[in-house]
Amino acid sequence: MTTEQWGELKKQLLETVGESNYRNWIEPLQFVDSTGGVARIAAPTNFAGTYVSRNYGDLILHRISSFDSGVRRIEFSTAPANTQAIPAARRTEAAAAAGAAAAPAPAAAPARRPVSARDSMLPPAPLDSRFTFDTFVVGKPNELAHAAARRVAEGGPVTFNPLFLYGGVGLGKTHLMHAIAWELKTSHPELNVVYLSAEQFMYRFVQALRDKKIMDFKSLFRSVDVLMVDDVQFIAGKDSTQEEFFHTFNALIDQNRQIIISGDCPPGEMKDMEERIKSRLQCGLVVDLHPTDYELRLGILQSKTDSFRAQQPDLVIKDGVLEFLAHRISTNVRVLEGALTRLFAFASLVGREITLELAQDCLSDILRASERKITVEEIQRRVSDHYNIRLSDMLGPKRVRSFARPRQVAMYLAKQMTSRSLPEIGRRFGGRDHTTVLHGVKRIEELRQQDGQIAEDLEMLRRALEA
Ligand SMILES: Nc1ncnc2c1ncn2[C@@H]1O[C@H](COP(=O)(O)OP(=O)(O)OP(=O)(O)O)[C@@H](O)[C@H]1O
């Protein structure tokens, strides 16, 4: 490639990446040579080489190969220490950003050092192409989290920072984060969006410490426009990673960069997490993904079935199968999806239509494992909520009707819906005797026959507990 062609190529890049990115990253690059299918480009610092490689590597390769079709790969190296590739002021800035790693090479050191894979501490986020907003089914349990994610994905002015998503296993936190990243990558390609798990954050931090590249690490993370850290609970109890996370977090918030975090519980309840981090995590918007309800599960199954059908149009699913699965598998969406995938694979292998019997056969282990064990405590909580009394009043000694009746309802449901014996139930109701429980159960059984309101309450509570 000639100097003129390189100049032409840079001009094209200016149009694509915009002036500010051009001045910061592209302008200082120098074309060195191209041999054996490898084009060598010198960047002023190690940090700049890594950054350009990660963000513009593909673009530059594409443009170079339009001038020289033999080029298959680009190698970035640091320019000689006395290079004038960037103005002095910017060089100081870049050197400061890259820290010790960018110090001028000693005279005896090789003039150029290829930027190795290990230097690339922030490779492109590995995003799952299936996790988009289009494939995310919205229902009551996740509508707030979805709406907040949508808002952040618009990429407008930062309104809540950080956005903290929490919820149990397999309820769609990662899916939503990836969906935000995909959306931003499409609508705002100029933004540097980084998604990674807290585990990867720690791994890169430890690697930077080991390689004495902590300044590179800091610069990389501080150059991010949108940072997403998944499963933040992973860094609980890991003191130095927490410390670094805290500083990265603060630096980005101070620069008004968007942060999105996910965790398995609300920030305030995270064990072994420093108080200052918990409090920082709570300062934006905290939203939870509730356990799925029947309607959401059915919606997800229908949506996944539609995409399976697109690949296998002759697939036959008998009525009632999806409803059965939505009713029986309530653990989490990952399990639900796994069940459906297995069912489709099995049906297509044996060439049978999907009936209720086939589903029961093929998924017997999942169905057994998903049988929900309702606890006495759950029943107590649900019943006290329903009758609007405090749990302590339900378990306490007061015999007034407004507490005694809900208490008996809860005892009745505990007898019906759990395998606990009367004495065991009694113990869980503030140490009551088994005869008291028996009396309560009998009383509610009678009332169920005579009192429509009680019958309705029982039915409603049973359905809520089974959901
Ligand atoms: N509302 C939804 N619509 C469609 N698919 C969903 C939904 N919720 C979850 N899923 C699917 O369920 C699977 C598990 O979701 P995901 O990995 O996002 O869960 P998570 O909350 O991050 O779990 P973990 O706590 O284990 O990290 C994914 O395949 C995801 O696509």
From TrEMBL:
Q: What does this protein do?
A: Plays an essential role in the initiation and regulation of chromosomal replication. ATP-DnaA binds to the origin of replication (oriC) to initiate formation of the DNA replication initiation complex once per cell cycle. Binds the DnaA box (a 9 base pair repeat at the origin) and separates the double-stranded (ds)DNA. Forms a right-handed helical filament on oriC DNA; dsDNA binds to the exterior of the filament while single-stranded (ss)DNA is stabiized in the filament's interior.
Compartment list: Cytoplasm
Which gene underlies this protein? dnaA
Query: NCBIfam families this protein is in?
Result: DnaA (TIGR00362)
**Which parts of the sequence belong to the Chromosomal replication initiator DnaA C-terminal domain?**
375-444
Protein family per UniProt: Belongs to the DnaA family.
Name of this protein: Chromosomal replication initiator protein DnaA
| Gene Ontology BP annotations | DNA replication initiation; regulation of DNA replication
A Gene Ontology MF term for this entry?
A: DNA replication origin binding
